[in-house]
Design brief:
Helices cover 44% and strands 15% of the residues. With 331 residues, the chain is an alpha/beta fold. The strands form two sheets. It has a six-stranded mixed β-sheet, sandwiched between helices. It comes from Candida tenuis (strain ATCC 10573 / BCRC 21748 / CBS 615 / JCM 9827 / NBRC 10315 / NRRL Y-1498 / VKM Y-70).
Length: 331
């Protein structure tokens, strides 16, 4: 059994879609849907070597979503590997949750692109100063202490693994928390300041959630801020960052929007996948950031950014095992 994971904004490169140019026929409907939704020649910018374009959050977010959806469709249409229909569950890290909703069928790619474009614009319009994000490598036995301390100080952004958390908030507060954590014992082993201007998953981003819900109500059929009725969990189930739990279809859009100002509970998400019987993570989309995070967990990890032949062999083996029930080497 396998689950699909979708990356956030942690990786972005110029000419993001260029490696997939050979699959133009498959990509054309995706590009057209995004361009129409954004009312711009957006997809062309992702083939150009325009790094400055992707430095804007409002461009980077729909770009990453589009590229990850493209990978899924290339695997399905060109290689005959329909991972989405066979997955036990699907989840995304931060921005990746919107991609997960596209693959799950909750949103179409044009609607999702418009939502994340607006999400990025709302973040940029806050024009926050003196905020920061810091990734902290910690000693795993102190995870509970770190989470408790960061939560109390209102700077917990991501619980990425038992060895890594991300802090987000005013620079002075983040700095003070890190000093306190190491005041009596070495809890934090190393820190890396992230090259971002927006404090993702900090409570200050609560300001963007109401306008995002208003746009979702306009774009998404049947959207309601509170679920009107329970519904059966679809296949694949969406496991959301906010709680790390399987989320009902009637609640998933609202739950994902609520996560903008609250921590990414990736450890809880991985715990839920394990309880569902997942043994392998297929990490869709460009880059290796999420692949690196997921290697901290006891799953087999397979990258799916379609950039080398060895990767394709691994993907084919995972798919064959899931669909046919035959492990490689046992025929």
């Amino acid at each position: 059994m396998f689950a699909i994971t979708c990356p956030g904004q942690g990786f972005i490169r110029a000419s993001l879609m260029s490696p997939y140019a050979q699959y133009g026929r498959i990509l054309s409907p995706i590009c057209a849907a995004v361009d129409e939704s954004l009312q711009a020649s957006f997809s062309q910018q992702l083939n150009d070597n325009n790094e400055q374009f992707l430095r804007k959050t409002s461009n980077a977010q729909p770009a990453m979503l589009m590229a990850t959806v493209a990978v899924a469709e290339i695997l399905r249409s060109h290689y005959g590997l329909d991972f989405v229909s066979r997955a036990t569950a699907i989840c995304g890290h931060s921005l990746g949750e919107y991609t997960a909703m596209v693959l799950n069928g909750t949103l179409d790619v044009g609607t999702a692109a418009r939502l994340v474009r607006r999400r990025g614009e709302l973040m940029e319009n806050l024009r926050l100063q003196d905020y920061t994000m810091v990734a902290a490598l910690i000693r795993p036995e102190f995870l509970d202490l770190v989470v408790e301390t960061c939560t109390a100080a209102r700077v917990l952004a991501n619980v990425n693994s038992h060895k890594q958390v991300v802090l987000s908030g005013p620079e002075s507060t983040v700095s003070n928390v890190l000093v306190r954590l190491n005041a009596q014992r070495r809890v934090v082993v190393r820190t890396v300041k992230l090259p971002v201007e927006i404090p993702f998953h900090h409570e200050v981003l609560g300001q963007i959630e109401t306008p995002l819900r208003e746009l979702a109500a306009e774009l998404v059929d049947g959207f309601a801020p509170a679920a009107a009725r329970p519904a059966p969990v679809p296949a694949p189930a969406v496991v959301c960052n906010l709680t790390g739990a399987v989320t009902l279809p009637t609640e998933v859009v609202n739950t994902v929007i609520s996560a903008n100002s609250r921590p990414v509970q990736w450890v809880k998400t991985m715990d839920t996948l394990a309880l569902l019987g997942v043994k392998t993570l297929v990490n869709f989309g460009p880059g290796q950031v999420l692949q690196g995070i997921n290697q901290s967990f006891p799953f087999k990890n397979v990258s799916a950014d379609l950039l080398n032949a060895a990767e394709m062999d691994q993907l084919a083996a995972v798919y064959e095992t899931a669909v046919v029930g035959i492990s490689p080497g046992t025929k």
